[in-house]
Specification:
By secondary structure, this protein is of the alpha/beta class. It folds into two domains: 157 residues, Rossmann fold (3-Layer(aba) Sandwich), CATH 3.40.50; 69 residues. 42% of the residues lie in helices and 16% in strands. The protein contains nine helices and eight strands. The protein has a six-stranded parallel β-sheet with strand order 5-4-1-6-7-8, sandwiched between helices.
């Protein structure tokens, strides 16, 4: 997953520009934030699932899995290797582990294990306190709403149940993230003026940049789906939300 450049520290100044835009536009200004790998680090959720798989299937080494063992985005095999499993053992359990993961990862009870990306709660709250509307636009589907709202609350983000904060989710799991994000553009436009958009997925941040050319599109250079899509060169990338 190397299809974006290493973030330049100077790119952090775009965060200040977003705050300035929030103050200028007020409630009609919409700041859009993806959740997974943008506002939240999913590694603790991933690690919990591997620990539970280890306990349920008699693989003691996996019961010691932590977020620190998860180093390759969405691929669980490196995490298995990091806790000491051999490649042969990994291949033997990979399929049932993936199924076990799939049954749990996309559920409310597990997404509350996510932890905020550095600086994210303070920055999103600053945007909200500056007067803008915060729109969380995520590829999570509706059955994950309760857990998503709770994880936002626990993380210290503006909760999408009150003034100027909303959570836009896929209606069903079967809708692809790409199709959903593109459908969401119309809803965002109806809400007001999109002043900024933050997303980790190259294809999604490129779309925001194309559809809302006056907005500040910012790429979160964390991890992504691994598709060979390059981030547009004019889009700044940041590693987290720590203000300069």
């Amino acid at each position: 997953m190397t299809n974006f450049a290493k973030p330049d520290p100077a790119n952090r100044f775009v965060l200040r520009q977003v705050l300035e835009a929030a103050r200028r536009h007020g409630a009609r200004g919409i700041a859009v934030f993806d959740l997974d790998s943008t506002l939240f680090d999913n590694k603790p959720r991933q690690a919990r699932i591997l620990r539970e798989f280890g306990a349920a299937h008699g693989v003691p080494a996996l019961e010691a899995c932590t977020a620190d063992h998860w180093t390759s985005g969405w691929d669980m095999k490196p995490a298995m290797r990091a806790v000491g499993l051999s490649d042969e053992r990994i291949e033997a359990i990979a399929a049932p582990a993936k199924e076990f993961w799939r049954e749990r990862f996309f559920t409310s009870p597990y997404c509350i294990d996510d932890r905020p990306i550095a600086g994210a709660p303070a920055f999103v709250r600053a945007v909200w306190e500056a007067g803008a509307t915060v729109a969380y636009c995520t590829g999570r589907h509706e059955p994950m709403r309760a857990g998503s709202v709770e994880s936002l609350r626990l993380g210290g983000f503006p909760v999408p149940a009150g003034e100027r904060a909303t959570l836009i989710m896929k209606p069903t799991f079967e809708v692809t993230d790409d199709d959903f994000k593109r459908m969401a553009h119309a809803r965002l436009r109806e809400m007001g003026t999109v002043i900024a958009a933050f997303d980790n997925e190259p294809i999604h941040i490129n779309d925001y940049h194309r559809v809302f050319p006056e907005a500040l599109a910012v790429h979160l250079a964390t991890d992504h789906s691994g598709r060979e899509v390059a981030v547009e060169p004019s889009i700044p990338a940041v590693a987290d939300f720590t203000l300069p």
